[in-house]
Amino acid sequence: MSEIVDIEAQEGLPPGHPATKKRKSRAWHLAQVLIAVVVVVLCFAYAIPKFASYSEVWTEVKTMTPFEVLLLLLATALNLVTYWWQNMVSIPNLSLWKAAVNNQTSTSVANTMPGGAYIAIAVSYEMYRAWGYKGSDVGVSVAVTSVLNIYAKLLLPVVALALIVLSGRANGALVGASSVGILVLAVSVVLFGLILWKKPFAYRIGNGFARAGMWVARLVGRPKTFEWGDAAVRWRRHMIDLLVARWLALSSSTIISHLTLYLVMLMALRFCGVSNDEVTWAQVLGVFAIGRLLTALPITPGGLGVVEVAYIGGIILAGRGHTTVPAEVFQAQAAAGVLVFRALTYGIQIPIGAITYLVWRTKKSWRVPASATLPAA
After folding, report:
1. Which of 74, 89, 95, 291 could form a disulfide with 249 if both were Cys (CB 3.0 to 4.6 A apart)?
2. Which of 37-41, 72-76, 103-107 has the highest mean pLDDT?
3. Statement: residue 11 has pLDDT above 60
4. Are 278 and 324 in contact (CB under 8 A)?
5. With contact defined as beta carbons under 8 Å apart, do 69 and 267 qualify?
6. Burial category of 124 from C-beta neighbours within 10 Å (exposed 0-12, middle 13-18, buried 19 and up)
7. What is the mean pLDDT of residues 36-61?
8. Is position 372 within any domain?
């Protein structure tokens, strides 16, 4: 970063010049891409083969029957539909196919680009606005569904820990992760409750997050100014109205989407040979819950590489001492189950998203004229 500043000084450009900001932005974006590539390569070329070779993994994958593959595909399809349902619940009068196009396209962006989760929100917002939805409706939808998904991710380790303790097969790693989840969940629930309780709290908390966001932006060399206090106050009323009217459907769609995703993982592991005697369904839930937390880390798109290593390592750790087959076979089965799960719930999203993007670009009848687009608030 200092080298960029020196070059700018030599060229006589002031620090705040647009060209300066553009170069810094490009440098940061390049750094993100390089870091993501290095992490993904290390995970797939070095870390995963330490558990099992890809030839051993493929041997276990081939043990699945056509009927098991069909069941996995049906479970994956069910999981996708739950995400569309959540969008339909949070956006007034949104049709199933629009929800599908919006969700799949934005998910594909999130799964392929560094910092893709933030870009995906912008893509989703552009689609909704082109279809004539108000900016306030879109903003509240993003805020509410994001909060509920975060709560679900934080709650999962807590539930999994309780189930594992009851089964008598708890371990220190899961206890530690669950404890962190409980603490973060408690703090976030209190903050969200204060936002909904009174306007002054909403304003202060919004400004607090804005200051934190500006600090992070400066830290990564991309200084920005955020004014989130007034936005928090504006959205507070909309969020209350949405939650009061649709709290049951919102919470149900969120819970079901996470549980169906877990179901795909559990089925993939079972079909690849990991039995309940080796790793119980509750332990699989615990590993799944920790992996879901890792997807929030913006190291690689969709946690690619990092999540796979965490899942495989977690399943092997959970089954240590309980395997009914040789250790190397169990490790290959665990790796096979995880990689099949990620191929279905991460990899398959990308080509589907490419198709839905083409639908978005060509389906002009869904769009409203620019002059007829509803106001932002």
Report:
1. 89
2. 72-76
3. no
4. yes
5. no
6. buried
7. 94
8. no
What whole-number distance in Å separates Cα of residue 242 and Cα of residue 227? Answer: 23
Residue 70 has pLDDT above 60, yes or no: yes
257 in any annotated domain: yes
Q: Which of 4-8, 117-121, 137-141, 274-278 has the highest mean pLDDT?
A: 274-278
State the Cα–Cα distance between residues 95 and 98, nearest whole angstrom. 5
Cα-to-chain-centroid distance, residue 370 = 32
Structural domain tally of the chain?
A: 1
Does the residue 38 lie in any domain?
no
Taking only the tens place, the pLDDT of each residue in 305-336 is: 999 999 999 999 888 877 788 999 999 999 99
What gap in Å lies between CA 212 and CA 218, rounded to an integer?
10
Where are the extended beta strands (E) located within the chain? none
Q: Containing domain of residue 176, as a range?
A: 53-84+95-363
Distances in whole angstroms, Cα of residue 332 to Cα of each of 50, 53, 217, 230, 340: 10, 7, 42, 53, 12
- The Cα angle at residue 114 between residues 112 and 120, in degrees rounded to 5: 65
Q: What's the alpha-carbon Rg for the chain, to the nearest Å?
A: 23
Domain assignment present for residue 377? The answer is no
82 pLDDT above the threshold of 70: yes
Buried b (16+ CB within 10 A) or exposed e, 20-52: beebbeeebeeebeeebeebbeebbeebbeebb
Torsion of CA 373, 207, 143, 306, to 10 degrees: 120
Q: Are 249 and 205 in contact (CB under 8 A)?
A: no
pLDDT tens-digit readout, 139-192: 777 777 877 787 787 778 778 777 777 766 656 655 665 566 666 666 666 666
C-alpha separations of 88 from 93, 98, 126, 249, 292 in Å: 7, 9, 17, 10, 23
